[in-house]
Structure formats: structure tokens, C-alpha cells
Amino acid sequence: MNRKTFAFGVCSEQGNWPVQEDGFFVDPSRGIFTLLDGFGGKGAGDISVKKSVEEIRKHIEEIEVSSSGPYNKYGQWQRFVFSECNSILLERNKNLSSNKRGGCSLLIGNIDENNILTATNLGNCSLFVFRKDEFYPILLAQVANPMSLGESYLPDQSIGLMIDIMPETRSIKLLSGDLVIAVSSSVGKNFSLIREAIKEEIQHRSEEKWSEIAKKIVSLDLLAGERNLTLLFLEARDQVIEINDDFNNYEENPLDSPDFDPLAE
User: Fold this and answer.
1) Full-model pTM
2) What are the pLDDT digits (tens) for 229-243?
3) What value does the mean pLDDT take over residues 164-170?
4) Does 196 fall in a domain?
5) Which residues contact 2 (CB under 8 A, 6 or more apart)?
6) CA-based nearest residue to 33, from 23, 24, 46, 21
7) Range of the structural domain that residue 140 is part of
8) Is 260 among the domain residues?
């Protein structure tokens, strides 16, 4: 099978939080990426993230058979997976006391062979496209004030705490060189500084991996000591590569800083 793909890099910082509750899963061979922001503490938020990633991976092969509806097949599949993840976590939480229940914000994106990005979001995560030195918001955090990075806001909605969820789905055509940026937190108060830092790093980037760029951003002094924060960069590619059964380049360990560039393999 031949398809377009993307390069990516991730950095995840635990900060002063007692446990890492962020998670991610990236599979360029299928053009899929996910970002998760758990809450509830140790044994709750981290487990909610792990179980959600397991559920997402379990349904990946069903993308091509997603039913018709108001969204394209990726949007339909994403919203189905959101529902399944929610059911799994609700079932887990129902017999737990309120202080032991966990949940997570969830962002899932697919980039197809035509470089159409379709993404669905619920909760604290945010998604942007960086194109020609400009940032374009695609999906913002579902919080009372989405422009407030670092504030202690709980999302208006999340996976695992409510039966009726209302995820948002968007699609956009990516151009070669576009940079997709996913953040596991609401953004805003400090986002102008983060935006300028990202622009400067990109302008001076030479041989640096995307994970190295991400690490520089999440390690900024203005964010030092904050809660869990994960930054995911994906760079759209125009080139078509061959995907075979042995092609498997996903990462899901939130403590790693992986990179993948199909043109460098």
C-alpha cells in the first residue's frame, strides 16, 4: 500500500505533579495520532489514559468500515471510539468512590492519503496548524476559559465522567510543510510566549529532531514546575512511501521523546 505520511516528535513533562497522567499514541503507517490528558491522580487518571489507548488501538482496523453519517469515515470512526472509551471508563468508575474515579481528555486525529486532517476533541487538549509563520486554531480546549495554560481548570466535558458527551470534530486540508501542533492542556495566558518560542525554534531549526524542539518548549522557564504537559509536533509530507506489513512506527510511552521521519529511514 502506498500513502502519504508525516514526521513527528513528542515531548512529555511530568512537572511537579506526583504522577504522569498524559499519554499519546502515534502510528504514521495509518496516519493516526492521539493525545490524552488524564485526571484523578495515581491509579485513576493514569489508568484512564492507559485503558483509553488500549481501546483506541483495538478499533484501528475498523476505520475503513466506519458507517456513513454527517462526518467523513475518520470523523465517524473517531466519534465511535470516543463513545467506546467513555463506556469503558464509566463502567470502571461506577463501583469506585468519587475520590478514586478517573477520566481523561482525548484528542484523536487522522491524516489521510490526500493530506486531509480530521480530528475530534473532548476536554482539555488543543490542536493548531502552523502555516507560513501563522497559527491557526483547529480545536480548542473545552473549558470555561480556553486561553489559560497552566490554570487549574477542569474541562467542561471528559471521557469517563458523564454518559452524554459532545466531542467536536473538524477537518482541514494540510499543505506540504504544515506543522500540526497538539497540546495536552488549555492554552492562552502564556500562549503568545509559547507561540513566539515555537516560531523562533522553527526558524532556526537545522538538524534538530521534532522531539528536541518540543522539549525546548515544554522546558521553558514560564512553564517550569507546572502540571503534566505534552507537546506533539507532526509535519505533513507530500512524498508517498510504501507501507508494508512490517511497517510499524508507533509510540505510546509518555515518558519517551520519540521521533519518526519516513524520509530519513
Assistant:
1) 0.85
2) 888 999 877 655 554
3) 95
4) yes
5) 240, 241, 242, 243
6) 24
7) 2-37+105-264
8) yes
Which of 224, 211, 216, 223 lies closest to 256 in space, CA to CA?
A: 211
Residue pLDDT, tens place only, 178-215: 899 998 875 555 667 777 888 888 887 777 788 888 88
> What is the distance in angstroms between the CA of the first residue and the CA of the last residue of the chain?
17
Residues with Cβ within 8 Å of residue 95, at least 6 apart in sequence:
none
Q: Which residues pair with 39 in a beta bridge?
A: 103
In a domain, 197, yes or no: yes
CB-CB contact of 214 with 35 (8 Å): no
158 belongs to a structural domain = yes
Task: Please choose, from the candidates 85, 227, 109, 230, the residue with its C-alpha nearest in 3D space to the C-alpha of residue 161.
Answer: 85
Of residues 190, 197, 206, the one with CA closest to residue 126: 190
Q: How many distinct structural domains can be found in the chain?
A: 1
CATH code, 31: 3.60.40.10
Q: What is the rounded distance in angstroms from the CA atom of residue 144 to the CA atom of residue 128?
A: 19
